[in-house]
Amino acid sequence: MNLTQAFKENQSIRLGLTAGDWKEAVRLSVDPLIESGAVKEEYYQAIIDSTDEYGPYYILMPGMAMPHARPEAGVNRDAFSLVTLTEPVIFPDGKEVSVLLALAATSSEIHTSVAIPQIIALFELNNSIERLVACQTAEEVLAMVEESKDSPYLEGLDLDS
Prior knowledge:
By secondary structure, the chain is α/β, with parallel strands linked by helices. The protein has one domain (3-152): Mannitol-specific EII, Chain A (3-Layer(aba) Sandwich), CATH 3.40.930.10. It has helices spanning 3-10, 22-35, 42-54, 108-123, 128-134, 138-147; strands at residues 13-17, 59-61, 63-65, 79-90, 96-104. A 5-stranded mixed sheet has the order 1-4-5-3-2. Helix 2 (22-35) packs antiparallel against helix 3 (42-54). Its main location: cytoplasm.
């Protein structure tokens, strides 16, 4: 599973959206995965319930969250979606987020060995949050993903399978 392939197959890049609160932002990030059949409807509620219980553990850096839940919470296949917000939302821990990259992983191994390195590679690009929020088209986002492929985090990963 690679970001470019997942974004294209699931038509899951949505830019310049507006959310009233963090729950709506998570919903916007999960909707493309529900629409494409990558996850079941209950996946969204599993993320909300998990956030209520453990806090927003999926805020990976200032401005960026990776909402996800366990594979058994309704994941049909590995997928990603990316949503940018015109205005940041505030999560229960007080952190502001304007980019959400939702993850659906069929196993913990996919999550840690394939998904996380690609996400780190994308978000280690200079000014990644600002650049993503400024993107006007899916092609601009995909160009950033392409740019991130030189990252040392991706060495040895076979992203073509």
